Amino acid sequence: MPDRIAEHYERHAHAFDSLRRRNFNERHWLDRFLVGVPKSGHVLDLGCGGAEPIARYVIDTGRALTGVDISAKMIALARTRFGRQIWLKADMRTAAMGRKYNGVLAWDSLFHLPHRDQQAMIGRIANWLEPGGMFLFNSGPEHGEAIGDQFGESLYHASLAPWEYRELFAEFGLTEIAFAPDDPATGGRTVWLVRKFE
What we know:
- This protein has a single domain (2-196), classed as Rossmann fold.
- The model has no long low-confidence stretch (mean pLDDT 91).
- Helices cover 35% and strands 32% of the residues.
- It is built from 7 helices and 9 strands, in the order H-H-H-E-H-E-H-E-E-H-E-E-E-H-E-E.
- It is α/β, with parallel strands linked by helices and 198 residues long.
- It is globular.
- Helix 5 (72-81) links the parallel strand 2 and strand 3.
């Protein structure tokens, strides 16, 4: 399934980037996330796309950013726009990070992974976070799988149940700050903001 996701975004990289740059309804969540990230902090953006608009917003606040995306075309766009940041063409499930981060973003990306991979990624992300580090991501409102449609093609999504995410938070030393199921301000996304224990 992740291979199909990679191929989808590779085929539609420029169309997706153009559409994405016109829609920035998650800004208030990023502001809440950045409250917990020092001004000199470093943010990891998993599924960064072409760096618009989320990575740009973080970079414009003065934080350093490392972006990871499975699409080579998306990473090429990000590198062209922000050459001073770090951009890695990689699968988040196997990417090797040589440092820890003050914040991790997985906006519109983690939910493309099957259930077991999401469970493993919560552990990996917790390990990448500095104590006190912030983690912002989306899921579905309940346990399940769904096939969406984008650019006339099917697109896989999966979610654990809220209680399953909370069990993982407890296991990996994360604490829930905010949870908004079907948040109307972000187009119906289910949003989580969590923090690693100090």
